[in-house]
Task: inverse folding
């Protein structure tokens, strides 16, 4: 499956010099600085694969973990969903709130570190989305376990991320192998769910040199089994 992408979704690929390590790039300060100085870093349109998946879904309670500046959460709110977005960057959350106000929709935005200081209410969302929340293995497992806990029986976890192959074969995304992942890691992380999709997807990304390259993403759609009657 291939989709086009807005250049802004790949601002990281063009011109920006990434910090030497994930450790430096993943702090609250680093995220705040990025969001303060670089405008709408990921653009204002929803991720293309999310739009493909969620267009036409009946209203749901949606949780967006690592929602950033709110492009996906606010779009989901415009589609009639009851949305909560969580991100560790107060700057991003402020920008997300402003975007929701500009589009005259309501969404709840909260500043929290999903790994360290957020506890999900079990089964409280029908759809949990994670869009490019790229974390090192321990943190990734914690975040994915919390996503699993937050989703209700019958509900869905939907995830898009940069695939491990993206560094060697793709374009954009973080240049730190430890925060990229593949089908195997996701199958383990979401082993309590029924996996409907767990596969590579591709996006065309146009670079500053005018050449179009393929970004390698991973897309997961997984549902939580209904509790047995009885
Ligand atoms: C690549 S951005 C993607 C933002 C958004 N999901 C999107 O697709 O536009 C990753 C986001 O995850 C947030 N983040 C990273 N680690 C986090 C954590 N432990 N808890 C909450 N948010 C986190 C960052 O602040 C950043 O906004």
Result:
């Amino acid at each position: 499956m291939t989709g086009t992408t807005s250049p802004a979704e790949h601002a990281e690929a063009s011109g920006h010099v990434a910090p030497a390590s994930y450790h430096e790039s993943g702090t609250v300060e680093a995220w705040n600085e990025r969001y303060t100085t670089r405008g709408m870093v990921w653009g204002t349109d929803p991720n293309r694969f999310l739009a493909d998946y969620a267009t036409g879904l009946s209203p749901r309670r949606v949780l967006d973990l690592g929602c950033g500046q709110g492009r996906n959460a606010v779009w989901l709110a415009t589609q009639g969903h009851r949305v909560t977005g969580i991100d560790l960057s107060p700057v991003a959350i402020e920008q997300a709130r402003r975007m929701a106000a500009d589009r005259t929709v309501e969404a709840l935005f909260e500043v929290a570190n999903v790994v360290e200081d957020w506890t999900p209410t079990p089964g409280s969302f029908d759809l949990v989305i994670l869009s490019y929340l790229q974390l090192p293995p321990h943190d990734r497992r914690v975040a994915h376990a919390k996503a699993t806990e937050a989703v209700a029986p019958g509900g869905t976890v939907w995830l898009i991320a940069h695939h491990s192959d993206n560094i060697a074969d793709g374009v954009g995304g973080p240049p730190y192998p430890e925060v990229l992942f593949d089908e195997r890691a996701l199958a383990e992380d979401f082993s309590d769910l029924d996996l409907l999709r767990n596969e590579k997807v591709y996006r065309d990304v146009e670079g500053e040199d005018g050449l179009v390259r393929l970004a390698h993403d991973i897309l997961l759609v997984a549902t939580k089994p209904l509790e047995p009657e009885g």
